[in-house]
TrEMBL record:
Keywords assigned by UniProt, alphabetized: Transferase
Alphabetical list of Gene3D superfamilies matching this protein: 3.40.630.30
Keyword NAD found: no
Lineage: Bacteria, Bacillati, Bacillota, Clostridia, Lachnospirales
Alphabetical list of Pfam families matching this protein: Acetyltransf_1
Domain N-acetyltransferase: 3-168
A molecular-function term among this protein's GO annotations: acyltransferase activity, transferring groups other than amino-acyl groups
Cross-referenced CDD domains: NAT_SF
Membrane-traversing stretches: none
Top-level division of the source organism's lineage: Bacteria
Protein name (Swiss-Prot/TrEMBL): GNAT family N-acetyltransferase
Source organism: Defluviitalea raffinosedens
Amino acid sequence: MNIVIDKAQDQDVERIAQIMNTVKEAIQDPEWFCADNQEFITRHIHESGFILKGVYDHEIMGFLIVRIPKYEKDNLGYDIGLDHSKLSQVAHMESVATLPSSRGKGLQKLLMMEAETILRKDGFTYLMATVHPGNVYSLNNFTGLGYEIVKTMKKYDGKERHILLKII
C-alpha cells in the first residue's frame, strides 16, 4: 500500500471534518477524542500551523493537525513550566485521526514522522501532545515515537489528559 503524506489544502477541510466526526462516533470512549469545527481546521491550514493528510488511491484516510501556539495561553509548555523564552519552540501534535477502515496500517506513525521532519527543519524543539489515559492505542503510538508522559491533568473542559513531550 502506497500512502502519500501531503499538506492539506482548503479543498480538504470538509473531508477532514467528516473524518473527525466519523472517528468521534466510532471511538470506544467519547472522552478520548475531541472533534474540532471547520473554522479550526481552516485556521491550521493558513495561520496556526499545518495539517498533514494521508492519501491512498486519491482518498484521505487520516490526518494530523499540527498547532503552533506561540505565546497563546493554551500552549502546553505553560502546563509543564517551560521557560517563557522557550515557548516559541513548542509545537502541538494537536489532533490525529485515522478512518476506522484504515487503522493498523501505520498511518499515524507516518504522519507524525513527517511532521517531526518539518518541525525540526523549522527550528522547533519541543513537540507536545495530549492523550486520554485510557486511549492506549494513541498513547502507544506516541510513546513508540519517543514521546514521554510528563504530566497528567484535567484539560478541555475537565477531561483527564496525559501531557506528552518529545525534545528534538
